[in-house]
């Protein structure tokens, strides 16, 4: 079974980054500044819709607390940022200031670890239905074009970790998915929605959160959700 949605999503991000960087100078300033706001609100809306499906709220919150503690202790966000800068140097791209890195890591999370992407990759791997990822592909394509118009074509590099993450989920889906109950899947999706909403807040400059440090929560959430269901 070919991962159509996974491939389409990653290719769209790679092409969108190049296109956005190429047409950036010709785009009116009002478009380059206003559309990211729309994408930020769109991320919040997607996040809210996924978070609303939560079944067991307590394990989701606990996974976020423990996940953040683990991420902070491991300096996960800083390690990822150092990795990005290493790739940048090897590819001879010039990155901007701390604000650039903040926006880049936020977009990295949105494209690689959003609730829609994770759930879409698992769904396609298990059922072959790529509709969720194809819908995400359309949004990601236009999102990366707009952001690449100001941030440059280095944004296309996100397509590589995005493909690796989604392909891994796609391949593991046949093992993971049958082990997850409907409640676990809903809680896992809700966690992805909350992190997507946080990333949207980052884009909107409402509240800056080190969302990458919350990534360990994805590993903890299914386990805690299962234990919660067994106890309660």
UniProtKB/TrEMBL annotation:
<feature type="transmembrane region" description="Helical">
    <location>
        <begin position="128"/>
        <end position="147"/>
    </location>
</feature>
<dbReference type="InterPro" id="IPR007563">
    <property type="entry name" value="DUF554"/>
</dbReference>
<dbReference type="Pfam" id="PF04474">
    <property type="entry name" value="DUF554"/>
</dbReference>
<feature type="transmembrane region" description="Helical">
    <location>
        <begin position="211"/>
        <end position="231"/>
    </location>
</feature>
<protein>
    <recommendedName>
        <fullName>DUF554 domain-containing protein</fullName>
    </recommendedName>
</protein>
<feature type="transmembrane region" description="Helical">
    <location>
        <begin position="61"/>
        <end position="80"/>
    </location>
</feature>
<feature type="transmembrane region" description="Helical">
    <location>
        <begin position="35"/>
        <end position="55"/>
    </location>
</feature>
<feature type="transmembrane region" description="Helical">
    <location>
        <begin position="100"/>
        <end position="122"/>
    </location>
</feature>
<keyword id="KW-1133">Transmembrane helix</keyword>
<feature type="transmembrane region" description="Helical">
    <location>
        <begin position="6"/>
        <end position="23"/>
    </location>
</feature>
<feature type="transmembrane region" description="Helical">
    <location>
        <begin position="188"/>
        <end position="204"/>
    </location>
</feature>
<keyword id="KW-0472">Membrane</keyword>
<keyword id="KW-0812">Transmembrane</keyword>
<feature type="transmembrane region" description="Helical">
    <location>
        <begin position="154"/>
        <end position="176"/>
    </location>
</feature>
């Amino acid at each position: 079974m070919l991962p159509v949605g996974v491939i389409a999503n990653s290719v769209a991000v790679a092409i969108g980054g190049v296109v956005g960087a190429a047409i950036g100078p010709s785009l009116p300033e009002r478009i380059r500044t206003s559309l990211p706001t729309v994408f930020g609100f769109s991320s919040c809306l997607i996040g809210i819709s996924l978070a609303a499906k939560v079944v067991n709220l307590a394990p989701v919150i606990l996974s976020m607390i423990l996940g953040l503690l683990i991420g902070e202790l491991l300096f996960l966000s800083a390690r990822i940022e150092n990795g990005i800068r290493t790739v940048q140097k090897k590819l001879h791209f010039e990155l901007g200031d701390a604000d650039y890195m903040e926006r880049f890591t936020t977009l990295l999370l949105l494209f690689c670890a959003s609730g829609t992407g994770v759930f879409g990759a698992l769904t396609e791997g298990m059922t072959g239905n790529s509709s969720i990822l194809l819908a995400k592909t359309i949004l990601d394509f236009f999102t990366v074009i707009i952001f690449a118009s100001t941030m440059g074509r280095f944004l296309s590099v996100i397509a590589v970790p995005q493909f690796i993450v989604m392909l891994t989920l796609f391949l593991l889906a046949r093992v993971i998915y049958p082990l997850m109950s409907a409640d676990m899947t809903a809680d896992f999706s809700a966690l992805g929605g909350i992190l997507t909403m946080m990333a949207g807040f980052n884009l909107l400059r409402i509240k800056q959160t080190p969302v990458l440090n919350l990534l360990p929560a994805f590993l903890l959430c299914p386990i805690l959700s299962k234990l919660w269901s067994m106890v309660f």
